[in-house]
Amino acid sequence: MKLFDYRKSYDKNELKIQDIGNNPIDFFIKWFKEAEDTSEIIEPNAMTISTVDKNNSPSSRVVLLKQIKSRSLIFFTNYNSNKGKALDKNKNICASFYWPPLERQVIIKGVANKIPEVESQNYFSSRPFESQAAAIISNQSEKISSYESLLKKYKSFIDKNKNTKLNRPKNWGGIEIIINQIEFWQGRRNRLHNRIQCVFDNDSWEYKILSP
Ligand SMILES: Cc1cc2nc3c(=O)[nH]c(=O)nc-3n(C[C@H](O)[C@H](O)[C@H](O)COP(=O)(O)O)c2cc1C
Prior knowledge:
Blueprint: H1 24-36, E1 46-52, E2 58-68, E3 72-78, H2 82-89, E4 92-99, E5 104-114, H3 117-126, H4 129-137, H5 147-161, E6 172-186, E7 194-201, E8 204-209
Antiparallel strand pairs: 1-2, 1-4, 2-3, 3-6, 4-5, 5-6, 6-7, 7-8
The chain binds flavin mononucleotide.
Flavin mononucleotide (FMN) is lined by residues 43, 46, 59, 61-64, 75-78, 81-83, 140-141.
């Protein structure tokens, strides 16, 4: 492993401030669609979200983006997980996407809120039975005695609940990130990358070009 020898050059695209248009969320959707249309990108909706817990300690992990709204992003999780507990204390959240084949990164900052229960219920009902069962039996982020014990719990739950309609546990649902900042990064030659930061302030978007 010679990590110092990795020297990828970025030269596929460029990004100008005027490309963003009036609404950076529309521009994000445009980039997202381009990521979806790029066959090498297997999960364009995988995003890294970062939270800060009650001890001011940051954590990052990947979740799947499930909905893009006019000024927000939605993902689903266990509200009692580490991220859920961190968000209860500190609503600030950062979400980032890296789409290597396009040499693009997007960094979004905002505040997180639980979505209405009926919307979490609707999405829960649309999931396969096995995923619903897993969401019910897994106390996400809690210590377990062994993987086998988890499998046993899962199988016994499935046996008992075959052919029944499962209800969403109250601690599982959607989180909506209300976006107040979004940065678009486009890799360029010689590490002179394009960065455009858009900040939502006083009901409108302000754009800045940032030094790479
Ligand atoms: C590709 C990928 C997709 C994932 N999607 C989700 C998701 O949508 N929701 C979720 O809660 N965890 C998801 N995870 C698991 C999280 O990364 C993480 O392990 C879990 O949410 C527990 O995080 P926490 O202990 O920090 O709360 C995903 C992991 C990967 C690698």
